[in-house]
User: Which sequence fits this backbone?
C-alpha cells in the first residue's frame, strides 16, 4: 500500500466522525420552529398573525433563543374544527416545538388531542370555553375562561347597573353554552331573573320570534348574547327594528362590534385586554405594532395574547432547549413553582389545569365607535 492509498483510508475512517460533527453543528444552529394556528385571514385572527410576526422579528433581532432564530410556521384553520385538526397534524409533521393557537374554543378543543398525543405544548390566546380546562396536559390558555367572563358580566349587570331581569340568546356551541351557563348561574345567585334562554344557530340567526316575545313581555332590562360578532350585529339589527332599546351585553367574542356604529352604541363587552391599557409594556407594544403595521387597526386581545405567548415561550426555551416534555413542564410551573410572566396583557400565572385565574376581566362600553373601559381596570 503506497502513501496515497494510506492517506485515502485515513480520510475514509475519519469521514463518519466529520459527518457527526457537521450534523451536530447543523442541528444546534438550526432555527427553532414555533407554530401559529388560527383564522389568520379573519378580522379577529389577522391581528394574531401580525403580532406573531412582530414578536418573532423582535426576538430574532435581539439574538433569538441562545443564538438560534425562531422560524414562524403559520397555518390558517379558517375557524373550522375539522380544518384545525388538519392544521395540527401538519404542524406536528413540520417539526414545531410548540404552538400558539387556536383562537376559537371549538378549534382549540378539536386540535388539542393531536398536540397532546405529540407532546407539543399548545398555548391558546383566546379560547375561553370551560371545556378547554380539561383539553389535555399540553394545552394551556392565557385568557380568562367563560366562567370568569360570564360571572363578571353578571355581577356588573346586577350590582353596577342594578338590572334585575334579562333575556339570554346564545349560540348553541361550546362557547355559547359555556358563557350562557356561567352568566345565568351568577345572575340568578345575585337575585336576578332570566325571562328566557333561547338558543340559535348560524351566522345570521333568526332570533326575530324571541325578540318579539321579549317586546311583548317588556320585562327584560337587557339582552345577554352568548355568541360571536356577526350574530350580535344581526340580533341588534333585528331588535332595533322592533323598537327594542334595552342594552345588549356579551363576552370577548363580540370584539369589534364597535365598528357597527350607532347600532352597537351602549353595548357592554367583556374582555381580557384593551389596546388602551396604560402600562409601559402595553404602550411599547401598541407603538411597535402601529409602526410595523401603520394601516392596521390597534391590536385586539388575540394579538396581544399571541405576542405575550411568543415572549413567554422565548423565556421557556432559553432554559429548556427544544425537548417537548421539558417545555411543557416549564410552562406548567409559570406562576406556581416559578414566577409569573409579566406581559402586555398583564400577569400570566397558570394553575394546575393550565388556566390563568389571575388574569383580569375588563368590561367596556361602546361609545362613539370605541370601547371604553368602565369596570376592571
Assistant:
Amino acid at each position: 500500500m503506497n502513501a496515497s492509498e494510506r492517506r485515502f483510508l485515513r480520510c475514509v475512517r475519519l469521514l463518519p466522525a466529520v459527518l457527526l460533527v457537521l450534523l451536530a453543528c447543523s442541528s444546534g444552529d438550526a432555527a427553532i420552529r414555533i407554530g401559529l394556528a388560527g383564522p389568520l385571514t379573519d378580522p379577529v385572527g389577522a391581528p394574531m398573525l401580525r403580532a406573531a410576526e412582530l414578536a418573532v422579528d423582535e426576538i430574532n433581532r435581539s439574538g433569538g433563543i441562545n443564538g438560534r432564530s425562531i422560524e414562524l410556521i403559520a397555518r390558517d384553520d379558517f375557524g373550522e374544527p375539522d380544518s384545525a385538526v388538519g392544521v395540527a397534524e401538519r404542524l406536528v409533521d413540520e417539526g414545531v416545538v410548540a404552538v400558539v393557537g387556536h383562537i376559537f374554543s371549538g378549534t382549540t378543543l378539536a386540535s388539542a388531542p393531536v398536540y397532546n398525543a405529540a407532546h407539543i405544548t399548545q398555548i391558546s390566546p383566546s379560547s375561553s370555553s370551560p371545556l378547554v380546562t380539561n383539553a389535555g396536559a399540553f394545552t394551556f390558555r392565557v385568557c380568562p375562561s367563560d366562567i370568569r367572563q360570564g360571572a363578571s358580566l353578571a355581577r356588573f349587570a346586577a350590582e353596577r347597573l342594578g338590572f334585575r331581569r334579562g333575556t339570554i340568546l346564545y349560540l348553541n356551541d361550546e362557547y355559547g353554552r359555556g358563557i350562557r351557563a356561567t352568566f345565568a348561574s351568577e345572575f340568578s345567585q345575585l337575585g336576578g331573573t332570566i325571562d328566557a334562554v333561547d338558543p340559535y344557530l348560524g351566522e345570521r340567526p333568526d332570533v326575530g320570534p324571541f325578540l318579539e316575545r321579549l317586546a311583548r313581555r317588556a320585562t327584560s332590562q337587557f339582552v345577554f348574547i352568548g355568541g360571536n360578532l356577526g350574530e350580535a350585529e344581526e340580533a341588534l339589527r333585528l331588535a332595533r327594528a322592533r323598537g327594542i332599546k334595552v342594552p345588549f351585553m356579551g363576552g370577548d367574542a363580540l370584539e369589534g362590534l364597535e365598528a357597527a356604529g350607532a347600532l352597537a352604541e351602549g353595548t357592554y363587552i367583556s374582555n381580557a385586554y384593551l389596546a388602551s391599557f396604560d402600562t409601559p409594556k402595553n404602550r411599547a407594544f401598541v407603538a411597535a405594532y402601529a409602526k410595523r403595521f401603520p394601516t392596521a387597526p390597534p391590536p385586539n386581545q388575540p394579538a396581544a395574547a399571541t405576542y405575550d405567548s411568543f415572549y413567554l415561550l422565548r423565556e421557556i426555551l432559553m432554559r429548556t432547549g427544544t425537548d417537548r416534555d421539558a417545555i411543557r413542564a416549564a410552562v406548567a410551573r409559570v406562576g406556581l413553582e416559578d414566577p409569573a410572566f409579566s406581559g402586555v396583557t398583564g400577569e400570566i400565572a397558570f394553575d394546575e389545569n393550565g388556566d390563568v385565574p389571575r388574569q383580569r376581566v375588563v368590561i367596556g362600553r361602546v361609545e362613539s365607535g370605541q370601547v371604553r373601559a368602565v369596570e376592571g381596570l
Q: What stands out?
A: The CA atoms of residues 233 and 257 lie 7 Å apart. Residues 3-27 have pLDDT under 50 and may be disordered.
